[in-house]
Amino acid sequence: MSTPTSNAPFRRRGAADRPRRSGGGALRTTSLIIATVTTGLTAGVFTDWSNTIMPGLHDVDDRTFVMAFRALNEAIENPLFVGVEFTGALLFIGLSAALHLRPGRRRVLLWVGAALAFYLVTNVVTVGVHFPLNDKIMEGEPHSDADFAAARAQLDEAKWTAWNTVRAVSTTLAFGCLTWALAIHRRHGEG
Question: Partner of 137 for a Cys bridge, out of 96, 128, 155, 180, CB 3.0 to 4.6 A?
Answer without folding.
Answer: 155
